[in-house]
Amino acid sequence: MITIDSINNWFVQNFGEITLEQAKSWFIYNPEEKLLFNTGLFLGLFLVFYFVYAFLRKTFYLRLTYVILFSLFFYYKSSGIYFLLLLLSSVVDYGLSQIIYKATKDSTKKIYLVISVILNLGLLGYFKYMNFMIVTFNDMFHGNYQLHDVFLPVGISFYTFQSMSYIIEIYREEIKPTKNYIEYLFFVSFFPQLVAGPIVRAKDFLPQIYQKLNLTKQDVNNALFLIIGGLIKKTVISNYISINFVDRVFDTPMNYTSFENLMASYGYAIQIYCDFSGYSDMAIGIALLLGFKLPANFRTPYKSTSITDFWRRWHISLSTWLKDFLYISIGGNREGTFAGFLFPSLFFFGLLLWGISNVAESYIPLGIAIGAIVLFSLTFLLSKKKHQTLVTNFNLFTTMLLGGLWHGAGAQFIVWGALHGLALAVHKIFMEFFPSKKEGKGPNFLWRFFSILITFHFVVFCWIFFRARDFETAIQVINNIGQLTFEPEHWQAIVIGYKNVFLLMLFGYVWHFLPEVITSKMKFVFDKTPLIGKAIILGFVYWIVYATAVAGSQPFIYFQF
């Protein structure tokens, strides 16, 4: 018979005695132990939180306030005292949104919108790009300005973009402001997606606040399925691959063989997918348990048949935000603007200078620079609608450049964005010449297979810049891969040495490329499993998380953005 004493004895044997210091650590910020979805601490705190939440489900402001307090605590455990920055930002944006909504003159609305954008981007710029700008200035003008000791608050890019979307949608008269600050703060600080998305649009989320909570059995099934899948992706696949292989190779690529560099690139591709989509799955699942539906953020992106298709499947909430609030704002496919032409021009000018400065060592950089400029130029010179395509491609390139810079302050992120921008422009002109190959027009199996293969390898190539700590390291990895020779016996020895890593990589890729009919059947079986069975599965997964934890819980990759 199971008794309280037997449960207590089991707990003590497995986890040890709980001391007062341990209990305090649960509620005090520790930069080495952030509160992550894949930790036992979060599970314990969430169960207590959810128990109280269930009793408050029929209230409104009390329930909102309760979730806000837990959200602020959640952010405090991630960024310490910088949760006050979130509060300060929310107070300012809420006040400006009220002024914009009540203003009668368009000029007044525009002035306060510009103030809001400057404040938000200024705040983001200081914490995320100050040292990058200092280093760039020192390099260009031989300055000697000292770097600032700047702490980067977790997820500042995400909640900044979310807050900006709220104000812009009010300015565009797409939504009305919330009735009070509590409702707005609930929207901005909602903890499931606060630190790493999905980026939620106000017009999609705010109506749900006012609806009566209605958590169905199917919602619970969907939520648990997402949470379990997300935990496996993040902890079992992503963490293990990262710690035991990918990080080692990318930290010192010259210490590893060409084959190991190549496999680390493939490893990072599945690592970042499992890490970020795993977090998104957990965030969507937890929000669903609270009665809120967040948008899907990933749709098996490595099945994409083109780079355009990839951006419809990868980080959907960000790509949609960039399209609606950046691409369209600088002219979209309608008109050219100063900003739309400025950033691509600066990039290609800088690329040309890089090529010229390396001529003494090699002509390859200059060839790459000239080739990129010619290729981009051909994407609109060969078009039947030259002016419109020129405008579209420049605005698209600007969007991807700034999207790359949003991910990180470094030349490697700018190059990553530029590669995607160039590929999108090339794909557009390809579709103009071969309209029969557009997605959805039923390409044959062979064409689809090679389209997916080429797109996947281009994306993996771009991930090298994204993962490398700097541009030089990315070039080292690429050079190493370029020296690959066919040595099956040597490859076999490496595969055997990293067999667990490669098995998990294979498992991750097989899971990703499973046909939808199989994943649907898996979901159907899970839905039919009794609730106690689902609880056992979830508990088992958390046990796996606990058992496979290596060197502490690993932060989610997108926390740094």
TrEMBL record:
Name of this protein: Membrane-bound O-acyltransferase family protein
Topology class, membrane: Multi-pass membrane protein
TM region(s), chain numbering: 35-53, 111-130, 150-169, 181-200, 220-241, 338-357, 363-383, 413-433, 445-466, 491-514, 535-559
Homology family: Belongs to the membrane-bound acyltransferase family.
Short name of one Pfam family: MBOAT
Lineage: superkingdom: Bacteria
Location in the cell: Cell membrane
Primary location class: membrane
Keyword entries, A-Z: Acyltransferase, Cell membrane, Membrane, Transferase, Transmembrane, Transmembrane helix
Classification via InterPro entries: Ac/AlaTfrase_AlgI/DltB (IPR024194), AlgI (IPR028362), MB_O-acyltransferase (IPR051085), MBOAT_fam (IPR004299)
Keyword Transmembrane: yes
